[in-house]
Amino acid sequence: MEHNWFFPPHDGIRLGDLAEALGAELADAAHADRVVRSVSPVARAKEGDICYILSRKMRAELETSEATAILCDPALASLVPAHIAVLLSRRPHTAFAMAGELLHPSAMRPEAMTSSAGISPGAFIDPKARLEPNVTVEPMAVVGKGAEIGEGTHIGPGAVIGAGVRIGRNCTIAAGVTVQCALIGNNVILHPGARIGQDGFGYAPGLKPGMIKIVQVGRVIIQDNVEIGANTTVDRGTMDDTVIGEGTKIDNQVQVGHNVRIGRHCGIVSGVGIAGSTRIGDGVMIGGASGINGHITIGDGAQIAAMSGVASDVPPGERYGGIPARPMRDFLRDVAEMAMRASAREKKKGHKDE
């Protein structure tokens, strides 16, 4: 893939300077003046690109790579051809992410759709809203009565900021986002189409067939440095608050139910559904398409495998998987046992057919 105009290459960073910025070591000091301009996968890297490797499985791709530099663990440095500069790091994946931020800063959060800064004439700002200096509001955005928006925050086109909402400084609220009944910290990113603070799903049995709506009068609180993906929904609390802890990253198309409390620095992958009043600790990782039952607790540092169904509490630090989710060793044992039984049935069937 050729470089495109959406994310053009950097003017160039010397490898010596890049190594210092990443806390990496340049294996050969003679390569310090080589320049990198972009990131790339190993297989199609060209001059000016930097890549990374994590295992010996990349050996064949390295042999034909035209990359300027490779980030890798010292144990893998011998795999890299002599014409490619090597930056040594014990955490090459992390170092590569840092390099990407330096080379492509515009890709770190949604950019403005229009070139004008400040408040667009095509936006509607209620007279009783309060905006600090250097706030950008793009066309067709709406900022409601009593809303407050901090300095350096960008509100994308078509976004709707509800009455009384508080948004901190240096946030990015992308195109088509809606925010209501929410308090949002600093440096928060909400990707296009995210829905924050709408009704949670709550009903009581009616006196006649049907259901009666339970009022949802809580809030959403999003702490600093949270990132929430496109078309993800975070329901406001019923009477308590829904809380997303500092530094947590939530992927696209995730459902966070009312009264859920998610701790700090969690990672939640696309397609996850979290039912109401669940408590999730700090540093929890939840794989894609998992379903989390309501009114349960997932302890600090727990990991949930993709496509799991979590029906009961998960202790801190445990790795769970499967439906219903259970300790990973039990899940893998069950999978192996089912595979053995299936194989035995096939063999038995084959003997009968002979």
| Cα-to-Cα separation, first versus last residue | 54 Å
For the record, what CATH class of the domain at 13-107 applies?
Answer: Alpha Beta
Biggest β-sheet: strands ordered side by side in the sheet: 10-13-16-19-24-27-30-33-36-38-39
- The CATH topology of the domain at 13-107 is Udp-n-acetylmuramoylalanyl-d-glutamate--2,6- Diaminopimelate Ligase, Chain: A, domain 1
Poorly predicted parts: none
Determine Rg (CA atoms, Å): 25 Å
Give the overall shape, derived from the CA principal axes. flat
Provide the structure class.
alpha/beta
The biggest sheet, with number of strands, parallel, antiparallel or mixed sense and barrel status, is: 11 strands, mixed
State the main characteristics.
single chain; Udp-n-acetylmuramoylalanyl-d-glutamate--2,6- Diaminopimelate Ligase, Chain: A, domain 1; flat; 10-stranded parallel sheet; 354 residues; 39 strands; alpha/beta; 25% strand; 11-stranded mixed sheet
